[in-house]
Design a protein that fits this description.
The protein is an alpha/beta fold and 278 residues long. It is built from seven helices and 14 strands. The chain is 24% helix and 28% strand.
Length: 278
């Protein structure tokens, strides 16, 4: 299997084939495959999608590969764009996750690999999908740690947290809740469904951290229930509002490089590799 790493700073399977890319002055991305490939080659495209141009580069790469005769093409996009827009909450909005899924399905990939999707909606929309859980990533982070609670930050994370607990062979799970105003996005009503956390380390695990509101509100409630050290582990670290406020409340902040490469000293970033992608 050969690899085409469209983001040169993201090489989870190792070095890839040579190519050139640039953006025209009008804003259009462009690509040219340099390596000589044949119809017998199997190729995996890897890409971190932060914008429509990143998605556009995938579309152009597939077209270029098809035109030089490559037949067997797969795709690895660990962070699936638009995955949080997986239901219609208010009138006039698009179902964004389906827009991206339709674009990807139109390319007829042999396989599409995604990491820790936001919900079951995303894999249900993608043809030939392979879902990678967060189990190996979180397991690596927690190697050697003992006597902790795994915390599901909201109802949407409960199923995943119990699956993770089974993988880690721990039974100490704490579930939580919150309320969100769908019109404004504001969060209220954080609840921790435990009486006394007895000073234990609490490890909050979720798929995405963007603005951080969920984690900030939850940290205060956990502390009110006698939590010890607070650690947050997220697969896809966007951190749209930075990490400073989170670092005040959390002793450790950990994510993968699935979305972008962080230089923030508050964040410990794990580079994805084959050990996490089983």
């Amino acid at each position: 299997m050969k690899h085409l790493n469209l983001d040169p700073h993201f090489t989870p399977f190792g070095n890839g084939i040579d190519f050139e890319k640039f953006t025209f002055s009008g804003g259009e991305p462009h690509i040219r495959i340099v390596d000589r490939l044949t119809s017998a080659d199997e190729l995996m495209i890897t890409q971190r999608i932060n914008s429509f141009n990143d998605m556009g580069l995938v579309l152009l790469a597939v077209d270029a590969l098809r035109r030089i005769g490559v037949r067997y093409i797969s795709l690895f996009i660990p962070y699936f764009p638009g995955a949080r827009q997986d239901r219609l909450m208010t009138f006039g909005e698009p179902l964004t996750v389906k827009v991206y899924a339709d674009l990807i399905n139109a390319l007829n990939f042999e396989k599409v690999i995604i990491l820790d999707p936001h919900s079951e909606v995303t894999p249900a929309l993608i043809n030939n999908v392979q879902v990678i859980t967060n189990h190996h990533f979180v397991g690596q982070v927690l190697t050697g740690r003992k006597d902790f609670h795994l915390v599901a930050p909201d109802a949407g994370a409960v199923k995943k947290i119990y699956g993770l607990a089974k993988f880690l062979e721990t039974g100490s799970v704490v579930t939580c809740g919150k309320r969100r105003d769908v019109r404004t996005g504001s969060l209220t009503g954080f609840e921790v469904y435990a009486e006394d956390l007895k000073g234990k380390t609490c490890i909050v695990v979720d798929d995405i951290c963007d603005g951080g509101g969920t984690f900030l509100g939850l940290a205060k409630e956990l502390k009110s229930k006698n939590a010890g050290r607070l650690i947050m582990i997220v697969t896809h670290g966007i951190f749209g509002n930075g990490s400073a406020a989170l670092a005040v409340l959390y002793d450790e902040i950990i994510c993968t490089d699935s979305f972008q490469t962080h230089s923030d000293s508050n964040i410990r970033q794990i580079e994805l590799n084959l050990n996490h992608l089983n």
